[in-house]
């Protein structure tokens, strides 16, 4: 049996080759002007079969979410299974195949779709987000396959579609249209972390987006008495909603910032001239709320603020919730959290730190189903940036950590 670190160093060139292959195939969602993941998925599946992921009891399964917007008609995901000594508590590693568009190509020093290796880094769109996680999982599993080893628990690698645009055709579709997952499963999502590989994300703030439409009466700028200024009422309402930070005022050191936030963000165009008092005004709020609060309680206070502004300013207020999400935390004591922390300690020789985040991940979808999920990897946070890079040693260290994670 080859030592894990020696094996990974020996296949360093193969890791870069896989990153090169995946980078060369843009897998962009239709929302970003792309044609989905079909070509990239097919190339990845060929690589997996070439390297024995469908032999000696291992299997590769393909799942397809219908999507008429792409030429293939489907958004594919792959599930690789490596049978373990115990199948009652399976370990999943979930990475995504899709990437975001390159943005302004003038900001790139190299061709985003042609991998470039330099000074221990590889550059290209997707090399870190999320091909680092994908490749670390693939080569950790390959270690077991090439050495004829059986992991302690059945390992499932999920290479999923549509993460960058909400997972409707990826993880969410799989959760609601298949029987892939069990409540006893342990899920690791290698799609967030820090440069040391120390932080394990176990919780997310509840997410609430509001699109608020205020309807008053348009009039001339010199005659506010003859109208109802929707802009003024909307401004007052945005301040009231921001003031909910003082009502939902608990703190939780798991998160940064450690309090709930209610922030006005986007404002839509109303009138074309300075001397018109608008009869309609629309603004948006991005609210990130500690999980100790229920969104139903928050929305009750939102309703109260709206009614108060209606009464004071003589307007009508309606709102929608473009995004609304709440999920429980994965307990620090959960097996997936403790097994990963032990693997980090052994490979990285550091004590893991458990954190919560304000952003949203697909981990929340799994936690809502009663499945413990954590988010972790070692990265420089290059997601969505021009000149995105992956530090090769980070990828290799993550793979070594996963090898240890699978062993216990």
Q: Which whole number gives the mean pLDDT?
A: 97
Uncertain segments: none
* Sequence of strands across the biggest β-sheet: 1-2-6-3-7-17
Topology order in helix (H) and strand (E) letters:
HHHEEEEEHEHEEEEHHEEEHEEHEHEEH
Helical proportion? 25-40%
Main sheet overview: 6 strands, mixed
Discrete helix count: 11
How many β strands by DSSP?
Answer: 18
Termini separation (Å)?
Answer: 17 Å
Radius of gyration equals 24 Å
Beta-strand percent range: 25-35%
Shape: elongated
Class from secondary-structure proportions: alpha+beta
Q: Could you please describe the fold and organization of this structure?
A:
It is a single chain. By secondary structure, the protein is of the alpha+beta class. It has helices at 4-10, 12-23, 38-50, 131-146, 171-177, 230-242, 244-247, 295-313, 335-348, 363-368, 392-407, and strands at residues 59-66, 74-82, 86-96, 116-118, 121-123, 153-160, 186-189, 199-204, 206-215, 219-220, 261-267, 276-277, 280-289, 316-320, 324-325, 353-357, 372-375, 389-391. Strand 4 and strand 5 form a beta hairpin. The longest helix is centred in the last third of the chain and has 19 residues, at 295-313. The radius of gyration is 24 Å and the shape is elongated. The chain starts with a helix and ends with a helix. The relative contact order is 0.17.
């Amino acid at each position: 049996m080859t030592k894990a670190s020696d094996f990974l160093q020996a296949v360093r060139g193969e890791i870069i080759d896989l990153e090169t292959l995946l980078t060369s195939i843009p897998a962009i969602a239709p929302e970003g002007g792309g044609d989905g993941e079909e070509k990239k998925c097919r190339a990845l599946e060929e690589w997996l079969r070439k390297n024995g992921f469908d032999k000696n009891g291992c299997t590769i399964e393909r799942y397809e979410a219908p999507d008429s917007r792409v030429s293939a008609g489907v958004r594919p995901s792959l599930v690789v299974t490596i049978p373990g000594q115990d199948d009652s508590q399976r370990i999943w590693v979930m990475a995504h195949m899709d990437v975001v568009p390159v943005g302004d190509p003038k900001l790139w020093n190299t061709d985003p779709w042609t991998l470039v290796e330099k000074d221990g880094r590889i550059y290209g769109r997707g090399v870190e987000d999320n091909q680092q996680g994908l490749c670390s999982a693939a080569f950790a599993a390959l270690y077991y396959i090439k050495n004829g080893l059986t992991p302690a628990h059945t390992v499932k690698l999920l290479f999923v579609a549509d993460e960058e645009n909400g997972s409707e055709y990826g993880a969410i579709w799989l959760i609601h249209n298949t029987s892939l997952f069990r409540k006893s499963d342990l899920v690791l999502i290698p799609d967030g972390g820090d440069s040391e590989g120390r932080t394990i994300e176990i919780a997310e703030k509840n997410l609430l987006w509001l699109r608020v439409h205020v309807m008053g009466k348009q009039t001339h700028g010199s005659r506010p008495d003859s109208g109802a200024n929707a802009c003024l009422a909307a401004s007052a309402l945005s301040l009231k909603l921001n003031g909910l930070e003082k009502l939902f005022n608990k703190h939780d050191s798991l998160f940064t910032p450690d309090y709930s936030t209610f922030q006005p963000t986007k404002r839509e165009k109303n009138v074309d001239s300075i001397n018109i008092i608008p009869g309609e005004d629309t603004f948006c709020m991005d609210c990130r709320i500690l999980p100790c609060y229920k969104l139903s309680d928050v929305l009750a206070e939102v309703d109260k603020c709206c009614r108060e502004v209606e009464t004071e300013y003589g307007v009508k207020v309606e709102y929608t919730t473009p995004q609304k999400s709440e999920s429980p935390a994965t307990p620090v004591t959960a097996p997936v959290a403790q097994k990963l922390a032990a693997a980090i300690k052994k490979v990285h020789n550091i004590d893991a730190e458990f954190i919560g985040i304000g952003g949203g991940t697909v981990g929340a979808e799994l936690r809502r189903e009663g499945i413990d999920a954590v988010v972790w990897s070692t990265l420089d946070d290059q997601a969505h940036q021009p000149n995105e890079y992956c530090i090769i040693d980070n990828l290799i260290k993550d793979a070594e950590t996963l090898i240890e994670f699978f062993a216990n």
